[in-house]
Design goal:
alpha/beta; Rossmann fold; 8 helices; 36% helix; rod-shaped; repressor; nucleus
């Protein structure tokens, strides 16, 4: 520990030091520095000394007394350099920490105040905000309208599936009675059918109409069994005589009846068409009625979903037992539909052949 001592007289001072006692003031003052603390002692006349001043070292290695007097810079020898290490002042660090905490607290309070102001402004804007206009789609309809139309479409599809499934699992006479009691159900069924038709890869009815145009020579008599909205009659009314039969008459072209008993004379038709209309559990009765009204060598056109026919070979064999011979077999729409063309070749050999059983369209429960 380095010690430096400095003496000075009171005469060199501009102001007298504080009086420690009633002794002579001309006694020399001794300044002693221990590490970073300088102690000043005053020597009394009787040889004793008293502490008169204690100062701390500043950053420029100068000592400042409590009385405010500045002492000259102390001379430091190389051996005593360690005595001038920077003093540790824990009290100053504590002050800084307290100041930082106070600043952090103040900042937090100001941030909360700003957030509260923002919330108040947001609430005010919400109160002032007018009712939003509904977003419009590319077609110009609002999203709400589109959503409602989608829901209505889903309900329509569900009702179509329900009615369609019932038609596959009842006889023609039962279906005829059902639609007589509820004509709106028939309209709902055909509306759903038209929507379903748009989703198919191939329109079977358009294919049948195209084929009939090639056969429409000399005003043939065409019978459309299960005609729906009688599109064949509307398209070919100038080229042929078309009789359209279905369970309910949706327009003037349609004659309502059970397809097992149509109001036509025996051997009066040139072409009979079943386009997706072999529904019900009594398909044999429909095909026997077609045999009855067809002229000899008359043509029978059948278009069905391929999956409905468990065995095409047996189905053809069953129709041969009903007095028909196969003329053409084609798959349409990537195999989704099958088109069968027969010719009336003779009498009915068997009234209920086993091969004419078709699978009903049962939809998966959601």
């Amino acid at each position: 520990m380095g010690i430096s001592v400095k003496t000075e007289t009171n005469k060199e001072k501009t102001s007298a030091p504080r009086k420690r006692n009633s002794t002579n003031d001309t006694s020399p003052i001794i300044s002693v520095k221990l590490n970073d603390i300088a102690i000043k002692k005053q020597k009394l006349s009787d040889g004793s000394s008293v502490v008169c001043d204690v100062t701390a070292k500043s950053s420029s290695d100068k000592f400042y007394s409590e009385t405010g007097r500045t002492n000259k810079e102390l001379s430091v020898s190389p051996n005593s350099a360690k005595g001038f290490r920077k003093i540790k002042r824990p009290w100053r660090n504590k002050v800084r920490k307290l100041a930082m905490k106070a600043a952090t607290r103040q900042k937090r309070l100001s941030t909360k105040a700003e957030e509260n102001d923002v919330k108040k402004e947001t609430l005010k804007k919400k109160k002032r905000k007018k009712k939003k206009q509904p977003n419009l789609t590319e077609s110009g309809n609002s999203e709400v309208v589109v959503k409602k139309s989608e829901e209505a479409s889903q309900l329509q599809s569900a009702r179509f599936r329900f009615i369609n499934e019932k038609l596959y699992t009842m006889t023609g006479s039962e279906a005829f009675k059902m639609f007589l009691d509820d004509p709106e159900a028939f309209e709902a069924y055909h509306e759903g059918f038209r929507s379903q038709l748009k989703k198919w890869p191939y329109n079977p009815l358009s294919g049948v109409i195209q084929w009939l145009r090639t056969q429409a020579t000399d005003n043939p008599v065409i019978v459309d069994m299960g005609c729906g909205d009688a599109k064949i009659a509307a398209e070919l009314q100038e080229l042929a005589t078309v009789h359209s039969f279905d369970l309910v008459a949706v327009n003037d072209f349609v004659t309502p009846c059970d397809m097992a008993h149509v109001p036509m004379d025996q051997e009066s038709a040139d072409i009979v068409v079943f386009c997706l209309s072999l529904m019900g559990t009594n398909v044999n009765d429909f095909l026997r009625e077609a045999h009855r009204i067809l002229k000899p060598k008359g043509m029978l056109k059948i278009v069905e979903v391929s999956s409905r026919i468990p065995s095409i070979k047996r189905f053809i064999f069953g129709l041969e037992k009903l007095g028909f011979s196969i003329a053409e077999k084609k798959f349409r729409g990537n195999g989704y539909f099958i088109t069968l063309q027969f010719t009336k070749s003779g009498k009915i050999q068997q009234k209920r052949p086993l091969g004419l059983r078709l699978n009903p369209c049962i939809y998966k429960r959601r």
